[in-house]
Amino acid sequence: MEKKFKWVQADTRAIARDGVFRLHISNVQNGDEGDYTCEAINSLGFVHTSGYLKIGIPPIIHKCPTELFWPESDNTKVKIFYGGDQPMNIKITRNNELIEDSEPHFKYTIFDDYIAIFIRDILKSDAGLYQVEFSNEVRVAIAQFDARITGLPSAPVGPMGVSHINKHSCTLSWRHQHDGGLRVTHYVVERKDVTSHWITVSSFCKDTSFNVQGLIENQNMSSGVMAVNENGMGPALEGQNPIKARLSRSAVSTRCTKGSRNWRRLCAFGMGET
């Protein structure tokens, strides 16, 4: 007996295949939501079945960072903005491993339009690829970002080079070091007399050498250099031995003759030839 069927809903296309009747709706809109009824009819009568079609909004990621740099031992907060129908289920993984609620320093809070991730006392093990899965009754969407753990730069590589010493200045030099995961922006150079406190002679040295001015002749001086990145200032490289400001022998030979008053004065400091 031939069966006939019809779907009671405008702007739709009915498909029958192998005894199964389907209704195909293309370009679904909010207006497609509602009650749908299918009637099967033959010469003996008809039967029908109805159902309600709800049009849902799938999860949509509106804003998510792609790469983050977290200072070790610091605290941080990450916000990911999303849209879609509630209720929304959220799952977070790090390097494809599910982050359990039992992790004491990792927490997250779900709001209507964003999720806030809190990490306290950041560890090196917190580095990696994070994936945040948003799912509702309609679909699944995944946001991801890469986190790198950074720290302070190490002390510059020694030993400290000392050159061009004269009675008022000298040149210090050093080598690059581990940058702590962030570019070294500059160096801080300090000096102090042996019995005095440290004095900053350059707070923003861009090179790996610096000419220290203002030395006092025949007085010992200590030196120190620290590297700086966005996290702050690292430990100091200090010179191995004190530096004494004095004229070099070559300068003495060009300015003094043996037996002169200047020659006798410099001999008293051990710089003249006898």
Describe the model.
It is a single chain. β13 (128-135) and β14 (140-150) form a beta hairpin. The chain is 5% helix and 51% strand. It has three domains: 4-53, Immunoglobulins (Immunoglobulin-like, Sandwich); 60-150, Sandwich (Immunoglobulin-like); 157-244, Immunoglobulin-like, CATH 2.60.40.10. It has helices spanning 249-255, 261-267, and strands at residues 4-7, 13-17, 20-24, 34-42, 45-53, 60-63, 67-71, 76-83, 89-94, 97-98, 106-110, 114-119, 128-135, 140-150, 157-163, 169-175, 186-193, 199-205, 209-213, 220-229, 232-238, 243-244. It has 274 residues and is mainly beta. The protein is rod-shaped, with a radius of gyration of 38 Å. It has two helices and 22 strands.
Order of helices and strands: EEEEEEEEEEEEEEEEEEEEEEHH
The dominant shape is rod-shaped
CATH topology of the largest domain: Immunoglobulin-like
CATH level 1 name of the largest domain: Mainly Beta
Tally the structural domains. Answer: 3
Mean of the pLDDT scores? 85
What structural class results from the helix and strand content? mainly beta
The fraction of residues assigned to DSSP E strands is: over 45%
Tally of separate helices: 2
**Rg on CA atoms, Å:** 38 Å
InterPro entries: FN3_dom (IPR003961), FN3_sf (IPR036116), Ig-like_dom (IPR007110), Ig-like_dom_sf (IPR036179), Ig-like_fold (IPR013783), Ig_I-set (IPR013098)
Pfam families: fn3, I-set
Keywords: Immunoglobulin domain
Protein name: Twitchin
